[in-house]
Amino acid sequence: MDSVQDTGVVITRVAERHWHALEDDLVVGRGETWRRPDGRVFLSVDAWHGAVFDQLADAILADLPKPLYTVVDEADLDLTSHWQRAGFTTRRREWEYVVPTDPQVTGLGSALPPPGVTIVPLGEAREDRLRELDRLIRDEVEASVGWQEMPAEVLPRPDGPTAVDLPKYAVAARSDQYVGLVRVAPVTRQPRIGLIAVRADQHRRGVARALLAHVLGTLHHAGVETASADVNESNKAATALVNGVGAWRAGSNLELVLR
């Protein structure tokens, strides 16, 4: 594999997606890339010293075509500055929210779905109808903001099948069609609300609020006091929804890009 040497540190590409920084045969830094389902390539660098970080980043960037992306905790100023020195700029910010589940706190105890709409509880959706809704919503997202604005975990590969994990989804149903969905990942101690999405022709009817009321109520009855959610700063509707139920910001992540 290729290697780069500077000031006693040797940078070696040890595999297609992995680089090591070696000093006196000791690994003092690692770099990795991975391709997200939407096709974008993201980078990660972990190094003992800032100078090693810079060498690793330079070596990786020299090997790969642009654009390239990375995600950093906005509070980590040191890491952010390293990527900025490498030429990365901020593309978007995601707020990390803590969402209470108690209906007396959220005010969602009386949040009913709109007339003609019912909520199908977590894990009880029909797979064929959920797949149909999932694909429709993905197409609507792609036609508007684009897949790259969605959480990575809910993105299909552009040329692959849509995959759904039934126990993680609750849906809103109207007649024989599903019109909205919410995805809840059972992360230890604090479940994560990964996605709330409603068909475009059903917006502004209270469907998303009813779905959120259902999942938070379910978690509350299970003894879970809070859930987490990531919200794109530019998504005003999602921001208003979580703020309206008493959620609070616990941090933020920056998606950086090198074009």
TrEMBL record:
Protein origin, superkingdom: Bacteria
N-acetyltransferase domain location: 117-259
Record-annotated membrane-spanning stretches: none
Pfam families per the UniProt record, alphabetical: Acetyltransf_1
Keywords on record: Transferase
GO-annotated molecular function: acyltransferase activity, transferring groups other than amino-acyl groups
Protein name, entry field: Acetyltransferase (GNAT) family protein
Species per Swiss-Prot/TrEMBL record: Actinocrispum wychmicini
